[in-house]
Amino acid sequence: MKLKIAILAGDGIGPEIMEQGKAVLEAVASKFGHELTCQEALCGAHAIDVTGNPFPEETFRICESSDAVLFASVGDPRFDNDPTAKVRPEQGLLAMRKKLGLFANIRPVTTFDCLVHKSPLKDELVKGADFICIRELTGGMYFGEKKEGTDEAYDTNAYSRPEVERILKVAYEYARRRRKHLTVVDKANVLASSRLWRHVAQEMMGDYPDVTTDFMYVDNAAMRMIQEPRFFDVMVTENTFGDILTDEGSCITGSMGLLPSASTGTSTPVFEPIHGSWPQGKGLDIANPLAQILSVAMLYEYFDLNAEGALIREAVQASLDANVRTPEIQIAGGKHYGTRAVGQWIVDYIHQHV
Ligand code: IPM
Ligand code: MG
After folding, report:
1. From the candidates 11, 22, 76, 142, which is the catalytic residue?
2. Which of 101, 109, 309, 319 could potentially form a cystine with 301 if both were Cys, beta carbons 3.0 to 4.6 Å apart?
3. With contact defined as beta carbons under 8 Å apart, do 312 and 294 qualify?
4. CB neighbours (10 Å) of residue 270?
């Protein structure tokens, strides 16, 4: 297959983990005979420094004309403590989501048996937890009407029926392919927007009789996720709730550096780790590249290249089993492996196995 991939490394640890993600992307392509064309493009704080825009027009054009985007992370402490900054790196990520119509963000929360002890939760609660959060990504408070004054400010949590229908459809399709259990997470006891979600979901559930649909308030879902993470199979929720719940989800697995995601919609899909740019880890060769590498697996799987995805997952599992791990998940007394060493080990594994 011919694949044109836009590479957006961004800020902080982004370029370091991207180097490994790209190496894995290329190793798999050469192994399976795919013809890759990678094109790098600017985004985030780096793009602000160079062009003044966190998602320059040129980057948009490259993304739009690619088959997929591999994205790392954006963010920079220079902007974090300055509420008056006119332009922020995160706006680049939001612009990309909006301009590429990426309304469905698929965030799998999968645990690795050998890492359950890294979770702050008890091993027996975490073991076997495996669910997907489907986060709506182009609506809600992130994009609704805003006012930002010094005496008054608001963000509007607006959703329309078609926006809710299309994301629920994605969620039902995932549930159908998995354990056939969909949890719709909302705050329908308080929010009008949530009542629309619930109304639409109740109408649609009849079309998916093979899937069990349940409804849960977001506060309760946050609790249930740590009390009984195995309860969930597929959960679907609005933009803001999904943002919050998926960070919570990453704790279940033991490290933020393990969770990949896919964002799909009306144009080019984007594959990215769910974690941020971790400026404190920048340049230290300690960031975990696995979330980026697993995002590459999701990229191949999106194109139905399932053997390619499976080989990456196998290589990641093998690296963990061999204790070739970055410091935050390394076993006590285990050898030190940096970002590059872990990535290189996985690349070598891919070259040696089918
Ligand atoms: C995420 C991030 C982003 C979000 C930030 C960086 C704008 O937290 O992808 O979860 O809030 O969506
Ligand atoms: Mg987030």
Report:
1. 142
2. 309
3. yes
4. 27
